[in-house]
Amino acid sequence: MTTDDPGSEPANEARAKSFGAVAAAYDAGRPTFPGEALTWILGRGRGLQVLDLGAGTGKLAAVAAGLGHDVVAVDPSQEMLEVCRRRPGIDTMVGAAESIPLAHASVDAVIVGQAFHWFDHARALPEIARVLRPNGVLGLLWNNADTVVPWVRRMVHAMQGSDHIAGDRFDPMPILLQSDLFALVETARFRHWQDLDRLGLRQLALSHSRIAVLTESRREAVLDQVNALYDTTARPPEPLRMPYFTDCYRARPSDLANYRRTLDAPVAPHL
What we know:
The chain is built from twelve helices and seven strands. The protein is of the alpha/beta class. The protein has a domain at about 10-145 and about 165-195 and about 245-260: 3-Layer(aba) Sandwich (Rossmann fold). Helix 2 packs across helix 9 (about 200-205). It is elongated and about 60 Å long.
C-alpha cells in the first residue's frame, strides 16, 4: 500500500478523481523518480517509444525524456496534463488505462509511476499488453517514504490518519503473476531523497488524495500538524531531506499476449 492507497468504494472513486484539483501542489510537492530506476526498467539505450500511463503532471515522463526516449503521457485529468505540457519533450493525451488511445503494438515500454493501484486491472492489463510491442516492457514504480526515520513516520501518520498501518504497501506482484498476459516479473529497489522547505512539505501533504478530499477545516487541521512538524524538525536554511525507497517491477508480454494482439483490430479507438 502506498500513501495514496485507494481504499474502498465509493471513497476510491472520489480519491482517484481528486488529483486534478491539486495538480500544482502535486507537481511542486511530490518527489521525482531516480534515473537509475528507470534505466533498470528500460535499459541503457535511447530512442524508445515510451508511454507513461497515469502520468499525472509528468514527473516520471520527464525522467524518461531526459534519458533520451520519445514519451507520450496519458492521464484522465486535463488539469494534471496542463502541468505536464510545460515539460519539454513530452506529448500528452487525455485517456485512461482501461482504454488507451494508442494503436496496437505502438510502444516499446509502458511505465506507470505511483498510479497502478488506481487502475481497474482486469481491463487495464489487456490494454497495456495490446499497445506494447512483442519485446516491450511494463514498468511499475512507487516512491515509498522510509518511515524508519521518526519525523517521516510522523509525517506519514499526519497524512494518513490513525488507521494507517506502517509498512502496509500495495503489492502488484499477485496481480501480475495471476495475469496470463505478462511473464518474467522482476523487482528492484532504489534509494533517493527529496529536499523540502516549509512550503514544499505542505504541498506534499496537499498532493495526497486523502487530504485532497477532506473538508476545508479538517484539511487545515492536518496542515497545522505538518507545519508543527516542520518547525520542530527542520534546521533552516538547510532543507528537510525526505528519504524514499523506489520499488520497481518490470515484466514482459507473454507469448499469449503477443498472439492475442495479432488477432485484434489494428487501431485502438481514440477517447
